[in-house]
Amino acid sequence: MCRKVESVSNRESNGWTRRSLLRGMAIAGVAPLLPGTAGAAPGSSGVAGGGFSLVQDGAAVDLFVDQVDDPAVARAAGDLAADLERVSGVRPRLRRTTSGMSTTAVLIGTIGASPVIDRLIAEGRLDTAEVVGRWEASVTQVVERPLPGVDRALVIAGSDRRGTVYGSYDISERIGVSPWYWWADVPVERRTTVSVEAGPVKRREPSVRYRGIFINDERNLTTWSNRTQERDKNIGPETYKKIFELLLRLKANYLWPAMHPYTDYFNKYPENARLADEYGIVIGSSHPEALLRNGVHEWQPWAEAHRNPDGSLPEYDYTVNPRVIADYWRARARQNAAYESCWTIGMRGLHDSGFQTRYAKTVPEKVAVMNRIITDQRRILAEEVKATAGPQIFIPYKEVLDLYNAGVQVPEDVTLVWPDDNHGNMRQMPTSAEQRRPGGNGLYYHISYWGTPKSYLWLDTTQIGKIWQELRRAHEHRVDRLWVINVGDIKSQEAGLSFCMDLAWNIHRWGPENIEDFLVEWTGRQFGRQHGNEIATIRTEFYRLAAERRPEFVDRGTISLVHHGDEAGERMAAYRNLLERTKALGRKLPAAYQNAFYELVEYPVHGAYLMNLKYYWADCNALASRQGRGAGVNRYADLCEAAHAEEEALTRRYNLEIAGGKWNGVVNPYPTDIPQAPGRPTVVRVTPQNTSGLGVATEGNETGIARPLSFSSYPRDRRFVDVFNTGFRSFTWRASTSHPWVQVNSTSDTVTDQVRVWVSIDWSRAPVGRNEARVTFTGAGKTVSVPLRVSNDGEEARRRATGFVEAHGYVSIDAAHFHGRVARSGADWRVVRGLGRRRAAVEAVPSTATPITDGVTTRSPELTYRILFAGAGTFPVTVFRLPSLDARGNRRLAIALDNGPAVVLSGQAVATGRWDDAWARNVTEGVEKLTGSLTVTRPGEHVLRLLMVDPGMVVDQIVVNTGGLPATYLAPPESYQPEAADREVR
């Protein structure tokens, strides 16, 4: 039963136009929008002082970097000069000596590597407390008369070379140059006068030492690079220069390069590694690429050149050819020894296949082989790279995690890099002993993925709240040595990547109450503060809809067309409303912002809408066919194909028109060689005939009218009836009601394919009690009478209700709408905004709390929900929890009613990697539905209790089925409760 999608959903009303105080401050300009500036957040500090002019009256200050300072510092200073030119049209001189400098200048240098900086420190004129001796820290401060002939200077001093680099880029961002100025075409506002606050500003050590990305499943990026950057290469030095610069502007320092067969491997071009070092980027490699070796490209030539004595090719199996493989690794260690690198130890198969061990069959045998591999690799690094052979990492990915848990011995100075399940759920956290290891812990996290059970490579669809919840949980377990984020092709992941790097720089910047404010700030940087709130609202709703179902996961028959007011139609109405809002805002933006707006806002929203729309129409087409419709079947087929054609045109515009074709090939939902987004769904058609016939299908019924329309005086919702034509010739229909208090929005019309009629109740006239009524439809010589069941407890009962009220055979609760909260045993529940399928979810915290398995009802932190039940009985309860894992533990919570016993519900704790099991369903749907039952001994008000068993569990919705609730993908609309209209999410 399908309706026009232009109407706006009433299910989500005004709740999320309300913002926290912090967001309001940001919009008003009270809270600074740029990280690292004075007062911006914990982790930076500063005292406001007089401004420092960088460009004034057509003249720019000189920039100085000492000749002996690191090349990365001089190169970043060159970018600062270019940024000042982007803003002002005037390019400063970059000086390498102090003679002949301008009277005001910017002095950029690294402590211990810049004599000018060291002298200022020795003279007590530069405050480097909490900077000197730290990792990537810096201070920016105005110093009077720092050099002969220089009256005043803005000094940027870093604790190490990257600290200095980040200090320089911080100035760039403060003058209005976005890190995404090139990668997302964010315009730079021109000004004739450019100045910054005098400071001092200190940027303390980042929360995570190594922060970076993995370019992976990079078919689109490779296509784009070959077409627009280097036609003789498939991602080469010119492309990596752009990537290195972006990383540094995002305050990242680490990269796993692209590695697939269609991409040139990193060391194919020696200048790649040299350039990375000159920029200050640490190069590492992913889990199948031990010691910086790209097995996809490099093993076969090596094997050809190092055949076995019998002429056969060596296998990439350490139980078969250990010497050849060790020499293969040694050659790369020797080649890259001079550069700051991160060395992956351990082994998997070529091209991310499983660990191959022909002569080790059992798990203990495989563990022994892995231990031998690590020992040999460590010897190679000690001999070839020597004292600089670090950091070293071990990545227990997929089956290697099982081997690690079974006894692989990883040296204490090696960083353990914990992977997620490829869908944003960390598989396990380090134990207290692992947290104390000198090598520390890291993580490998996906916001883009190719593989089982479904891939998501097209759009940035992982909720900011989900990223925060999992990465913050990891950091609480001291996972702070290395974070590497799988970003696929980079493009389309701009917001998610920015948020990950923001968290890695300062984990305390964003909390559960203000996560959404990141989008206000971030979009304000790209499009101006006056638009930050509106674009953030659009992005937040975009993420929420993706949390219901990612656009890449859309398929046939998932979301109901017939239940709960047409779930699928409601979803499409929400998308249509979002798209209209997006386009309306885009029309207000100046021409200079149109490219960036299309890339960062309009294309993701419009693309996701069309991907959902074509599958919606395909489902409507199939339902129309089952219902025996005529013209409607073909109409929905046409609409489906038109939506697919529009989606293709949308992507062509991105690739061929936006920014003058700069991004040709970078976005494609259907790339070759890798799993694709859903394509064109199949549709059916019927042969037109010059006939007509009345068909009626009501809400709750795939076909016909067998399930009566249900009405309750509590939610006072409406129900639909689809009046359709079984042929192709138009006819006129009429509707009449059995009682005057039954209302229809239309009593007659002419129908060619379908008309949706809405039925409601005039509650001021309806009699109290349980009543039955009918709406009768007549047309084309046929009459159909639709049954109604109306439950009216009266206005007084509605007003007296104090909690969620049962109606239509269920109670549906948004978990964040609790009535009471009790903290116990050092743990509590908290609300996390912008998380889950609704507007917020609740999380059991801290994630490091001890599980509570005994005395749950008295010792566990709890949330309480008042419910008014109409009857008694034992009822199924479904708790919608967001997937989270613990391969060495459990994922449990509990529910109880009143003072009754706790019912413990256990969730999936292990990522199986299968495509057809509970884990696969959970990550595809974005929730796990935990089921249990509770006994209601009498009608009336009761208290449902949500209790923590394992920490870190996140609950989104709770549904009690009191009889007749149909099975649907989405939870039903939230049940009526009197205070809901005025409630702000706690």
UniProtKB/TrEMBL annotation:
Record domain Gylcosyl hydrolase 115 C-terminal: where: 803-974
Cross-referenced InterPro entries: GH115 (IPR031924), GH115_C (IPR041437), GH115_sf (IPR042301), Hex-like_dom2 (IPR029018), TAT_signal (IPR006311)
Keyword match GTP-binding: no
One biological process term in Gene Ontology: carbohydrate metabolic process
Hydrolase listed as a keyword: yes
Any one GO MF annotation of this record: hydrolase activity
Coiled coil ranges: none
Sequence intervals crossing the membrane: none
Keywords: Hydrolase
Protein name listed in UniProt: Gylcosyl hydrolase 115 C-terminal domain-containing protein
Species of provenance: Lentzea aerocolonigenes (Lechevalieria aerocolonigenes)
